[in-house]
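Crash report, auto-generated. Payload:
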Amino acid sequence: MSDLIDTIRPLAKKTDSKILMVVLDGVGGLPLTPGGETELASARTPNLDALAAEAQLGLVELVGAGITPGSGPGHLSLFGYDPLKYVVGRGALSAVGIGVRLGAGDVAVRGNFATLGANRVIEDRRAGRPSNEKNAEVVSKLREAIPEIGGIRVEIYTESEHRFVVVFRSPGLDEAGQGLGANISDVDPQVTGVQPMLAVAQDTTSGLTAELVNTFVQRAEAALSDEPQVNGVLFRGYSDVPHFPSFANIYGLRAACIASYPMYRGLASLVGMDVVPVEGEEDALEGKVAALTENWAKYDFFYWHVKKTDSTGEDGDFAEKVHKIELFDELLPGLLALKPDVLCIVGDHSTPSKLKSHSWHPVPLLIRSDYGRKDLAARYTEEEAGRGSLGLRRGTDIMPLLMANALKLQKYGA
Amino acid sequence: MSDLIDTIRPLAKKTDSKILMVVLDGVGGLPLTPGGETELASARTPNLDALAAEAQLGLVELVGAGITPGSGPGHLSLFGYDPLKYVVGRGALSAVGIGVRLGAGDVAVRGNFATLGANRVIEDRRAGRPSNEKNAEVVSKLREAIPEIGGIRVEIYTESEHRFVVVFRSPGLDEAGQGLGANISDVDPQVTGVQPMLAVAQDTTSGLTAELVNTFVQRAEAALSDEPQVNGVLFRGYSDVPHFPSFANIYGLRAACIASYPMYRGLASLVGMDVVPVEGEEDALEGKVAALTENWAKYDFFYWHVKKTDSTGEDGDFAEKVHKIELFDELLPGLLALKPDVLCIVGDHSTPSKLKSHSWHPVPLLIRSDYGRKDLAARYTEEEAGRGSLGLRRGTDIMPLLMANALKLQKYGA
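Recovered output after restart:
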């Protein structure tokens, strides 16, 4: 599959039309027993049903056949970035996931706490899976011990259990626009019974970063020497900030992200969307409707995210996932009242309660505009979407289809 | 999307079977009101319906999801050439569109007549949109003034209004097979209030072409100095002849083009089809049936083009587009009487009357051969094609499918 972005960019034109992309995270599901109904099919969704009757439906695979997308690749595909080409490194995704913004030249690193025995030999690569509280306590010790290394600011964040994130803040960019390099070898040997490895730079611009990492390891072990179990650190996955062409650059769109969880706000900011404030706790559905309404005049593309359809699937709670779908259905009239020229409802992957995890199953796609044909699909469900006129597609097809339906794409060739 | 041509070429074999590809230009449509019928669904087409009942149907996107194809890319895709890889430049397409044949080493240039004020400053980049008659009158003056430049033959053609085409005929190819280069900068600054720009060669083989263009601009302004409005020329879009592998080279087919409009005859000649004479005015449907019958024994592939399904859509005349579809339906028995081994009916893009322009919507594809499976699609309409057994595909899939159905493709691998 070629990169559509280079084809789309010169065709994009600015118009007054508005596109609303609703992402119901993990919305695709499975029946609990063969031949049964999925969460979407079980839900009572009169508003979605009415919308589906006049919209076009299809199914999308976000990354590829049989491939289960993580949240990063799933969203990048929705935003039109081929997730096999545009990769967010582990370090950057971890940072983004806990709400840490990365600047040009910064490097984010994924760390694990470990238990070291005599002679620094690794006994447990996860330090006995400490509690989040213990993690935070140790991170606090490290913050005090290592605020900076050689003038480079060091930030340390709790992720969960044995996982933490370190961000080395670049002192600035050199004349070639280069900050800290991220191409260095792992400290984590991925086995026990040996010592942590020395980080080695794999290119000329990453030498300083390798030194920072090795110094960090040394000073962390000193700071944690009185800890019986959480007394070592291992690093794996270093990333600088991914430089993706922005939504404004590709599509000419002023784009807003309306999401309440850090991961999704972070992903949207990576592609240059404005991340607008949302009031409320957790999924904050009403707050998101309010944020959408308040910002409606200011933007021409809106990414509007619902999280709980995924979390309930991850919990394996079929009934609760059905309930979250129904809650969204109740809000739908509020979105329709804004009269988007193009409305899209889709997920970033499936999360069947039966599997308690993300899955590879295609996700239903709905597009409503004034330029649709008659469509046989009567509901926003996996089964009905399978006979919709949009067919079975890659996720990266969605943005071109939305742009076309908004009459924002010029003809290709004469 | 990979280039299928390299896979197909070694598999192609010659047989006596005949393939007829009917291209109903812009045939795909939209309902005028949501939930209504498209032009195809509204038309009374008993012959097409009977054919569809025994054929296989599907939908094709010629360039990609959401992308509206121009006639060039749309046709190249139908002929099996990836339109993102095989690009016909603006100059060449304009020349082709008015029926001018280009030879190896020639360069075709798109020109606009402009109005220049004092000190050669551009006042109007379209010279007040002159009539076609005025255009022809000015072209005639230029032909007299600039028959050649430094021994290089110069041909000047009216396109329409302010548009004209210049062809510089290469004096021959050098030892490396290089003629005139086409890689030079635009004369048209695309704004008013400034002078036309000097053309500058962007590579070593285009130096002479840049000189030709600059000399042409100078001599044209001298020749038009007594014109009050049409007194300058601007150039933009230079192209040499695209070198595409031919139909004979890829498919081993002796291919004939049966079309009455210059653009389509030109596109077919670019891929090495024989362009056979057609008697009659405009779309000349009866003339095309006669040309097909006369040439039936001589070729094994026929590209048979109908134009008016597109022009009526461009006019926004829903009823007239329906009528043109019905006129084709009346002719269909004449085509079937020739008993093609493989019959394909398709469009090069959609042209919904509602949009009065080409559009991105997929086009119905019909393939009839002795080697089809049962198919749920009962009519040649967008909706029925959407449940056909051929699925939703790229246009470049069509030629391999036709070759296979004609039993002209060998097994791939042992």
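Post-recovery validation: Chain A has two domains: 5-87+244-405, 94-240.
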